[in-house]
């Protein structure tokens, strides 16, 4: 979650509002205090003493308010929990018929610390229920603005591949119960260590932002360990605050080790689990959204190309929602397909597991709703149907898919998202 995401006020800000409220009250009772001071019962207390004491109280409160404003420290965060269950053990989005509340639960706290008028340090800690709530640093970077239009950052940040990359885990900032897996599923890595530079051009009724990023990452992917070195990419985002159009292109050297698939290999069988070994990987994406306050239409198209056995994929989704007060029902459809199946014609495990298990070709259909029960809190319900699993079941529960004839799965989700 980036500090650009609009969140609800923190408890600290609320306390400041309370103090300001009390100051106004003190001003409002001043005439009454003067009137009381004039009565015989309070004749011993002069008007000058009363006014002096009130002035001292106001000065003290004003100093506290100014001190709080000048600390340069701000905190916000987000929280999600919920329950999702699949109609079988296919493992779409990691969800089976034994899924638990912990799988959808997380808590994050983000702190922004002003180093100077133009420089900030941002740190975000995320604890996930699926990982026993162990805190993990998702953001840790230094930001500097030499000018109002130019921003430079260095440290650990989100890889800006998608329209919702910055708010990937901030469920409250998204209309759905989860980002469409057709596009967001194939690329499991989310963060990188490096630097970026963003420049913003402001026009009469629109703006254009250019962001160049570079660095490296080493994370768990869908199949196993993924290392991306010498990442270099550029994304452009134009918006007139109703329409938004975004394009991105990136390249890197990829090492991908299918450690999870290797777990299926008998101890006496040796296989090469490297799906990519220093191979060139490219990513291209194009997204657009329309939001006039009532209709919300979002779509993205992506392409992933990696030399070697790792699947090259084309993916897309389209989502349409409409706000009816605090309710936003939506429908969405997505599609993903591997494009280089002819490169995986051998056997991953001789005589047992073909390399074709890495292929993709499936369609997704979702219907759901979002209910904003109060500012900063939303409840979401979603039903997703996925079909075409037998045409290739990469990123699914391999052991289950190899032993079944399942061609589809349904996933039912109820989720609570909050931001503060």
What does this protein structure show overall?
- This protein is an alpha+beta fold and 420 residues long.
- It folds into 2 domains: 53 residues; 346 residues, Porin (Beta Barrel).
- 15% of the residues lie in helices and 48% in strands.
- It contains 6 helices and 18 strands.
- The strands form 2 sheets. Strands 1-2-3-4-5-6-7-8-9-10-11-12-13-16-17-18 form a 16-stranded antiparallel barrel.
- Strand 2 and strand 3 form a beta hairpin.
- Helix 1 packs antiparallel against helix 3.
- The N terminus is likely disordered.
Task: Record keyword descriptors for this entry.
disordered N terminus, 18 strands, 6 helices, 2 domains, 420 residues, alpha+beta, Porin, globular, single chain, two-stranded antiparallel ribbon
Secondary-structure map with pairings?
Elements: H1 11-28, H2 30-37, H3 47-70, E1 73-86, E2 106-114, E3 119-128, E4 135-144, E5 150-158, H4 181-184, E6 191-202, E7 207-220, E8 225-239, E9 243-257, H5 259-262, E10 274-291, E11 295-306, E12 313-322, E13 327-338, E14 347-349, E15 353-354, E16 361-374, E17 377-387, H6 398-402, E18 408-419
Antiparallel strand pairs: 1-2, 1-18, 2-3, 3-4, 4-5, 5-6, 6-7, 7-8, 8-9, 9-10, 10-11, 11-12, 12-13, 13-16, 14-15, 16-17, 17-18
């Amino acid at each position: 979650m980036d500090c650009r995401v609009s969140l609800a006020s923190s408890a600290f800000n609320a306390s400041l509002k309370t103090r300001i409220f009390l100051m106004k009250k003190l001003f409002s009772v001043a005439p009454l205090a003067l009137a009381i001071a004039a009565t015989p019962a309070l004749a011993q207390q002069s008007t000058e003493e009363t006014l002096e004491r009130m002035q001292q109280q106001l000065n003290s409160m004003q100093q506290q308010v100014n001190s709080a404003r000048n600390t340069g420290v701000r905190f916000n965060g987000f929280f999600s929990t919920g329950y999702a269950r699949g109609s079988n053990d296919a493992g779409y989005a990691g969800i089976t018929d034994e899924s638990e509340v912990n799988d959808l639960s997380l808590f994050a706290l983000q702190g922004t610390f002003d180093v100077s008028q133009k420089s900030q340090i941002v740190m975000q800690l995320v604890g996930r229920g699926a990982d026993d709530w162990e805190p993990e640093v998702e953001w840790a970077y230094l930001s500097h603005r030499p000018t109002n239009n130019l921003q430079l950052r260095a440290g650990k940040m989100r890889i800006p591949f998608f329209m919702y990359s910055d708010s990937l885990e901030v469920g409250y900032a998204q209309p759905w119960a989860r980002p469409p897996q057709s596009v967001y599923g194939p690329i499991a890595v989310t963060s990188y260590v490096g630097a970026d530079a963003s420049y913003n051009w402001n026009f009469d009724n629109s703006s254009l932002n250019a962001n160049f990023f570079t660095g490296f990452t080493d994370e768990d992917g869908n199949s196993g360990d993924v290392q991306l070195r010498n990442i270099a990419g550029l994304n452009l985002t134009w918006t007139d605050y109703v329409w938004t159009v975004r394009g991105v292109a990136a390249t890197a050297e990829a090492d991908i080790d299918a450690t999870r698939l290797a777990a299926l290999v008998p101890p006496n069988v040796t296989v090469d689990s490297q799906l990519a070994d220093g191979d060139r990987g490219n990513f291209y994406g194009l997204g657009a959204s329309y939001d006039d306050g009532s209709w919300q239409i979002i779509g993205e198209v992506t392409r992933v190309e990696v030399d070697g056995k790792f699947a090259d994929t084309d993916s897309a989704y389209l989502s349409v929602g409409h706000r009816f007060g605090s309710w936003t029902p939506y429908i969405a459809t997505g599609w993903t397909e591997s494009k280089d199946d002819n490169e995986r014609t051998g056997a991953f495990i001789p005589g047992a597991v073909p390399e074709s298990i890495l292929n993709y070709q499936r369609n997704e259909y979702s219907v759901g709703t979002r209910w904003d029960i109060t500012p900063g809190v939303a409840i979401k319900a979603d039903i997703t149907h996925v079909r075409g699993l037998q045409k290739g079941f990469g990123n699914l529960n391999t052991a289950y898919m190899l032993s079944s004839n399942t061609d589809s799965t349904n996933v039912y989700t109820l989720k609570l998202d909050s931001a503060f």
